[in-house]
Amino acid sequence: MSHAHARVLRLAVAAALSVGCQGVIGDAHETGDRAGPTPRGGEVPGDDGPIALDVATTPLQRLTRRQYVSTVRDLLGVELDPELLPGDERVGAFHANVEAPVDLVAVERYLRAAETAAASADIAALLPCDPASGDAGCASRFIADFVYRAWRRPLTADEQTTFEALHALGTDGGAEFARGMRLVIDAALASPETYYRIEASTPTEHAGIERLDAHSLVSRLSYYLWQSTPDDELLALANDGSIHDVGVLRAQAERMLDDPRAGEAIRSFASQWLGIEELAHLQKDATLFPEFDDALAREMGLETEQFVDHVVREGDGRLETLLTGSFSFGSDRVLALYGAEAPPRAGEPAALDPARRAGVLTHASVLATHASHDQTSPIHRGLFVRQRLLCQDLPPPPDGLMVSLPPLDDAATTRERFAQHRADPACSGCHELMDPIGFGFEAYDAIGRYRETENGLPVDASGRIVGSEDLDGAFVGAVELANRLVESEQVQRCLAEQWLRFGLGRATTDADRGSVVALTRELDASDRDVRRLLVELVTTFSFLHRRVVAEEGG
Q1: Is the dihedral of CA 311, 490, 370, 65 positive or negative?
Q2: Fewest C-beta in 10 Å: which of 136, 251, 264, 485?
Q3: Tell me, what's the pLDDT at 489?
């Protein structure tokens, strides 16, 4: 990139910051805990009386790496390396860039990514006309269309003029039309208008609550179900405002779920919700688990992602199948780990032993991730169930407490070695909430292989749940646990809340309780149809609205 080119791009970025973001980027973000009095935006019935429909504050959100890469792919047909981009933050289980401001290092990364994308683009294939024909409006039409789709809103007249001037500068007097186009693409993709989701809204009768405008709504919808920028059909519905019709909105959600791009969002949700992204960095003791390597780890993750995507988009969509389905799309190596045979025809799922494998909880990806490098971990497996399926967070260990797994002992089982955690008064409170659940997974070793003995001793996979809303009691093994989780209203509500967090790109608070309760009821009424949940999520009060915090002195 030349110095002149870099200077033009930085001016474009500065202009977008000052015009589009209005000083928001880098400011401290409000949270839902400071939302103020609950307004009355309608009500849903609750167990203890009506619940007011409210919404927590939505911070300014920067696209995740996956979302930016998918956006560039859908705009240009160019696949960027995610490592070019700034790293992602995490809010709970999910990637959500809502806290840290973009510094100069991050801006430089976006500049480099935008430059790479522009240089790789097939300009001739993107243009709506042939510049050699003498069509004077060719550049203007491309700018109006491309930047509109990148920024997810129409350009103002001044912005259109600025980009046309940028194109003219790049052509150097008309000699290099394509070079000017690359400069336009470069500047648009390097702008915060692309890598931030800047939402606009209109006031409602409820103080502090505003309804998303049509373009902001289709943007929120598209990054929820496709992890990418809206397509032409969504933008057309934004242009005429019909996307605000609930029937149209539901129909679009159904259409989007039928599109292959929805698979990317569902696989992304599964990977983050189940914590199996960690497989990319997972290490196991090579002496104890010689078959485990990076390739097997990737195959484990792909099995789970494909399983969840298949159940939601092609299968029956039911929570019961997600948690108890005894079939696999695993590779030959994963199936060998399960002791299962490959299916007779390619593309079909392999049958698994239902007494040993039941849904995602017994996938090798989940079991290996939530284990140590050389042994199982009742702590991590129990905590996984608490946090990801019951939505219960536990306090951190007391300051100064030594936290370490008990050493391996060839003469003892894991259950025996972990007994000390629960005997120590400083540890027992939290460990009583985790370890007894984790013991129910002891029939699976640290890479998810089924076992009946450990160190020559019989495995005891009996477990117990305490401190839940409707699950307390004993169980034996992960299969029984999975079947009990399916029937739990707490698990259904947690799944609804996890999807709402994913769809909104932020943490939920008490202000979102009405939307969570409404979604849980929809899930229960549809016989726990997760696909129905995904569609109804776009009609919730929290998805359609945002809370606006008045500026001090304003």
Answers
A1: positive
A2: 136
A3: 97
CB 133 within 8 A of CB 124: no
CA distance 306 to 141: 40
Cβ 498 vs Cβ 96: under 8 Å:
no
Per-residue pLDDT, 13: 44
CA neighbor of 195 nearest in space, from 65, 96, 79: 65
Beta bridge partners of 487: none
Contact indicator for 166, 184 with CB cutoff of 8 Å: yes
Model pLDDT, residue 473: 97
Res. 441: pLDDT tops 90: yes
Q: Would you report the helix, strand and coil content of the chain in percent, each value rounded to 5? A: 55, 10, 40
Residues in the chain: 554
Q: 184: which 2 tokens?
A: 């336009």
HEC sequence for 368-431: HHCCCCCCCCHHHHHHHHHHHHCCCCCCCCCCCCCCCCCCCCCCCCHHHHCHHHHHCHHHHHHH
**Average pLDDT over all residues of the chain:** 88
- Would the pTM of this model clear 0.70, i.e. be above it? yes
Q: How far apart are CA 412 and CA 414, in angstroms?
A: 7
DSSP string, 420-443: HHHHSHHHHHHHHHHHHHHGGGTT
Give, to the nearest 10 degrees, the angle between helix 260-273 and helix 294-309.
Answer: 120
pLDDT above 80: residue 424: no
Task: Name, in order, each residue with C-beta under 8 angstroms of 551's C-beta and a sequence gap of 6 or more.
Answer: none
- The string of pLDDT tens digits covering residues 66-118 is 999 999 999 999 999 999 999 999 999 999 999 888 899 999 999 999 999 99
pLDDT for 475 equals 98
3 state SS of 44: strand
With a CB cutoff of 8 Å and minimum separation 6, the contacts of 393 are: 386, 387
Written as six digits, the tokens of 492 are: 């259904």
Residue ranges covered by each domain of the chain: 3-30+59-197, 213-258, 286-486
- Token pair 């400083």 is found at 426
Half-sphere exposure of 334 (CA within 13 A, CB side): 29
How many Cα neighbours within 13 Å face the side chain of 35?
A: 23
Q: Quick one: tokens of 358?
A: 């039941």
Token digits of residue 183: 């400069």
From residue 400, give the alpha-carbon distance in Å to each of 418, 426, 483.
20, 11, 39
Q: In what order do the strands lie in the sheet with 209-212?
A: 201-203, 209-212, 545-547
Give the pair of three-digit tokens for residue 24. 């928001």
Cα distance from N-terminal residue to C-terminal residue, the chain: 42
